Amino acid sequence: MEELARHRCHGDDGTTVTVVEYRYVHIGQSQGGTPRRYPGARQIALTTGQAVRYIDSETFEVVGSGELLARIR
């Protein structure tokens, strides 16, 4: 898995949290034996591991609690 981005956000209570965007990557070989990367699904989570989902380009939601996170620009 590779890290794609980190987004600093404010929670409902004003605390600052970091949302991390990951992508699964499989490293394999082509038929000719050349190493090849196969990018897969993306996942977003807090640095604590809690699952997060996109609401829009500026807002995330913590899946377990429903807390909204606003991206800090």
Give a description of the structure.
There is one protein chain. This protein has 73 residues and is mostly beta strands. The protein has one domain. 0% of the residues lie in helices and 66% in strands. The chain is built from no helices and 6 strands. Strands 3-2-1-6-5-4 form a 6-stranded antiparallel β-sheet, with no helix packed on it.
List keywords for this structure.
73 residues; mainly beta
Could you give the topology of this structure?
Blueprint: E1 2-10, E2 16-29, E3 35-46, E4 52-56, E5 59-62, E6 68-71
Antiparallel strand pairs: 1-2, 1-6, 2-3, 4-5, 5-6
Can you summarize this structure?
The protein has about 70 residues and is an all-beta fold.
Strand-and-helix sequence, N→C?
A: EEEEEE
Number of strands: 6
Helix tally equals 0
Physical arrangement of strands within the biggest beta sheet? 3-2-1-6-5-4
Query: What's the main sheet like?
Result: 6 strands, antiparallel
Radius of gyration: 16 Å
The first-to-last residue Cα distance is 26 Å
Report the principal-axis shape: elongated
Helix content: under 10%
User: Uncertain runs with pLDDT below 50, 5 residues or more?
Assistant: none
Question: In total, how many domains does the architecture comprise?
Answer: 1
Structural class: mainly beta
Strand content: over 45%
- Chain-averaged pLDDT: 93
